[in-house]
Structures are given as C-alpha cells and as structure tokens.
Amino acid sequence: MASSSIFIYDNIPSLGAPGGVARYFRHISDGLISYFGGQATIYSPQMRNYGSARHIHALPLNFRGMRWLDYFLASWTVGQRPAAIYYSPYFGNVRTTAAQVFTVYDMIYELKFRRTRDVQAFIDEKRRCIENATLLIAISQSTAHDIITCYPHVDPAKIIFIWLGVDEFFFDVSRIPSRVGKPYFLYVGSRVEYKNFERALRAFGEAGLAKDFNLRVISPDHTNRFTIEETALIRRYNIENNVDLRLAVNETELRDSYAGATAFVYPSVYEGFGLPVLEALASGTLVTASNAASIPEVAGDTALYFDPLSVDSIAEALLRMAALSDAERHIRVAQGIIHARQFSWARCQQQTIEAIARLMPS
Q: Which residues, in sequence order, are CB contacts of 46 under 8 Å at separation 6+?
C-alpha cells in the first residue's frame, strides 16, 4: 500500500469569489508541497500545478454541498494512502490515524453566531477537530486565546499562532491613477451583523461628512446589495448620492480603491485576524479601526482606534482622519507601509512548514 509523509485535504467551501482562507491555503499548500515533494498527497478539486506531489482530484466544486460524501471519499482515500501527517485548512469529519493539523481562523461561530441547526453542526465538527488535533495553527494570538476560552479542556501546548501575510501586489501602487473626484472613506468586506457596517454608516451620516466626502463600500459577491435597513439609513441621512456600492471587484480595483481612499474604515466587533487592515496599510492608506479582538494586534500603533459599539466614537475617528494635515498623513502612511512589511507570506509559509515538519516521526 502506497504511503506519503503528508496528506493535504483541500475542503475550503467555494462560496462566491475566492476569499482570504483560499488565498492562505494556496500559500501554505504550495510551501508544504515544496518541502515534502513527492511525499505529499493533495486531495483537491482544484486543477493546477502541484509539482512532484500526488494530486487526487476531489469532488467538483459544485458538489461541495454534499459534505458528507466528500468526507467519506477523503477518509477512504487517506486510508488507501496512509500518511504520518494529515492537514486540513477547514476542519471536516475525515477519519485518519495520522497526526492531525488544522488551521483555526477565528471562533466567530462559537462566540457571535446564533445557534441555528447548521451553525451548531459546524461548531460540533470544528470542536471534534480541535480536540483530536496534534497541532492547531491559530492565525493570531487573539484566536489562540479564544480557542482556550471556548474549550478550556484543550491543551494550550498544542496551539501555536502564526500571523498571515499580505500579498506583495498591494505594495505596488506606482501605477495607480491620480485621485479624481470627491475624496472618500472606504469600507471593504461583507456586511453581516458582526462586521458592524450599520454603525459605521450611521457615523458617516451623523458626522456630516457627506458634504466633502463619499463613502465607498466594496463587498465580496454580486448578491451583496444594500439591505432594506441599510437603504433606510442612507435615505434617513440623505446620502444617496454619497454612498458608492461596488460588488465583487477584482484585486486591481480593490488595491486602487485602498490607495485612493482618505482612510480605510474597519468597524468589525470581532475578527480572527483582519487581513484588509494590512492590505490597506500596504497600499499606503490610513486606517481607522475597531479596538476589538485581533485588530489592535494586527494594526499595532498604525491605526486610529474607536469603540465599535459607539456611533459617536466612530464618527469622531472619521472626523479626525478627515482633519489630518498632509504632513501628518505622510508620516502615518510611511509608518503603515513599514508595519505591513512585517507580515509576509514567506514568513507565514516558513513558520508553518517548520511547525508541521516537526511532527514527522524520527
């Protein structure tokens, strides 16, 4: 029976445009394949260059709703090709006797979501993985802390944190067109409840900034139109012509939007990391952000913080950003770029490879 050193299970849900988890997994899987070479097996629906690793083609992406079947086939496959290490970027109910490694991005389901049947099913699956793991890779100190908060019986010694990186692409702002039109504040991301977008929208309206600024909103998929509640707030503050919604933009438009903004606004009440903060800083953008969860850990002293539960606090931060002199902006932008440079994918990749490789039998 054939064997391998590591079995890499690509089970990332394919919902809309590729997100941060997919980007992370590509960097990590490339690094693991480079390190283990022909001793790596990757079980994935993605068709791309896997070098000398053995690629087993998993269920097509449009079958990803049939998670139970995917888990059954993955369990059978890893049983046919036993490995010393099993790595999954997104949990799962795969049965294996290998040393199990999982990446934990956040504990948002456990801490913030209402316990519907589907949410509870995912929490149960994730808990089993956390308990069975030999190694848990948390993407921030905050996430590592939250794992223990939710599951105090889990051994802290098997949890390490490794920060994410920011793509070099975001630092390349030399060819971005000169800013034209009205200055704008920028919001990037989904607008589900914990993202706290409605308070940021209210803060923009109540601060009276629409006279001199717009609010640009970039959301990740084509269906993410403004809700009835958001539309009502926009009408309430009479800012229909000052809020610009853009859906599922490409990376070039995203980077250009960062670089052209007066400031990037990140009001989330909970994040496992907060990658958009680094993307904004790398693009030469000022950041004003929530002082919650992992965000201060990631942004350090480069951001202007506010209380995410206070509309007044958010509004005050926006007004302070709008009032900065050109000299102050220049200093803050330079500091932000230097800070973002500390978060490279090469470092993340290398630290992850080293941590996983230590699990190989002597």
A: 10
Rounded distance, CA 31 to CA 14, Å? 22
Give the type of residue at 176.
Answer: I
Which tokens belong to 136?
Answer: 């848990």
Please give the share of the chain, as a percent, with pLDDT higher than 70. Answer: 94
Q: Are 156 and 145 in contact (CB under 8 A)?
A: no
| SS3 state of residue 20 | helix
pLDDT for 65 equals 61
Please state, in angstroms and rounded to a whole number, the distance separating the CA atoms of residues 303 and 289: 6
DSSP annotation of 112 reads: T
Strand 214-219 to 40-44 pairing = unpaired
The per-residue pLDDT for 1 is: 38
The DSSP secondary-structure symbol of 95 reads: -
Mean predicted confidence (pLDDT) in 19-34: 91
Which residues, other chains included, contact 173 with Cβ-Cβ below 8 Å and sequence gap of 6+?
255, 259, 283, 284
Q: Is the distance from CB of 123 to CB of 109 less than 8 angstroms?
A: yes
Q: Which domains does the chain have, with CATH numbers?
A: 4-165+345-357 (3.40.50.2000), 168-340 (3.40.50.2000)
Q: What is the pLDDT of residues 121-150, one digit of tens each?
A: 999 999 999 999 999 999 999 999 999 999
